[in-house]
Amino acid sequence: MSGQPNPHKLNWDIFNDYDWLCGKDKPDSITPWSERDILCLYEKLLENSLVSLFDNRSSWNTRKEIYSWVINESDKNPFSFNNCCTFTGLEHDVIRDFVILKFKPHLLSQLH
User: Fold this and answer.
1) What's 1-62 look like in SS3?
2) How far apart are CA 37 and CA 28, in angstroms?
3) What does the pLDDT read at residue 57?
4) 73/84 Cα distance (integer angstroms)
5) 6-38, pLDDT tens digit by residue?
């Protein structure tokens, strides 16, 4: 890839944009993250996690990990489920209740 990537694009390519994302295009520098970049990261983390949770092609361990992330109401991590929902304008309690309702049968079937 020639030139600098567009910092406002929504779909980064980890292979082609790695140097720019990690600040390696400027030695000893910190990659500037805009508020929009961080909000995009919250949105993508939430979206990809929920898609993977209900995708039967995802490993059972991955799905359990995501489910635990969703139901953990006391997580203080900057990228907790609650924060991802809040910063993307979604009600975490509504999404959590939906996930529990839809995923619980899958969880119970795996316990038998």
Assistant:
1) CCCCCCCCCCCCCCCCCHHHHCCCCCCCCCCCCCHHHHHHHHHHHHHHHHHHHCCCCCCHHH
2) 21
3) 93
4) 12
5) 555 556 555 566 565 565 555 556 668 889 999
- The closest alpha carbon to 10, from 32, 29, 38, belongs to 38
pTM above threshold 0.70 = no
Q: What angle do CA 22, 61, 43 make, to 5 degrees?
A: 45
Task: Note the Cα 39 to chain centre separation in Å.
Answer: 11
Q: Write out the two tokens for 65.
A: 């990990």
Question: CA-CA distance, 83 to 72, in Å (whole number)?
Answer: 12
CA angle at 68 for the pair 64 and 71, rounded to the nearest 5°: 135
